Amino acid sequence: MEGRVSGQLEEWLGKEGDRTLGTLVDVFREKSFAIAFVLLMGVPALPLPTGGVTHVFELLSVLLALQLIVGRKQIWVPKRWQNMNLAGPTQQKFLNGLLKLIRFLERFSRPRFTFLFGHRVSNAVFGVVVIVSAVAAFVAPPFTGLDTLPSLGAVLVSLGVLLEDVAVVGAGLLFGALGITLEIVLGRAAVKGVSSLF
Questions:
Q1: CA-to-CA distance for 156 and 171, rounded, in angstroms?
Q2: Which end of the chain is more exposed for a tag (fewer CB within 10 A), N or C?
């Protein structure tokens, strides 16, 4: 995929007509999984209490990740989902923030170990990482913010795949692992605290 990721995303956002999941797949082709994960997991990665609203995004991420694991090169979604608008007025602020993050990473990132990307096995591993992160975000108690770090981990891993930089992927894995560990530790403490009341 030629050109900077931020440039391609900006070009897609600037196109006339609806910016749908279908047109996103057309622009990013073999990297459409990674950009879709960035958009889907980016919402629960925001440090805002969502009250479980983001579960739909996490479930959709799992479904797409399963396609990666079974070896699909490009996203397949039902025709109805292809027309889902991803860049409406309500998403514009989020997408502008995402563009800033991508541009920031592009300043410091460079291709590292590019031979690891785009293979059947590495794509399957990528899919597993997204599933683990999405499930961890899904089971986090609502309004606790514990879904933020696992989701951020998935976003960074996906950006690392887009930029073909193992350093960014490594940062994503670190954030994801930290978030899952925090979720387990605080979850155990909460269960222990509740059980001590009875």
A1: 7
A2: C
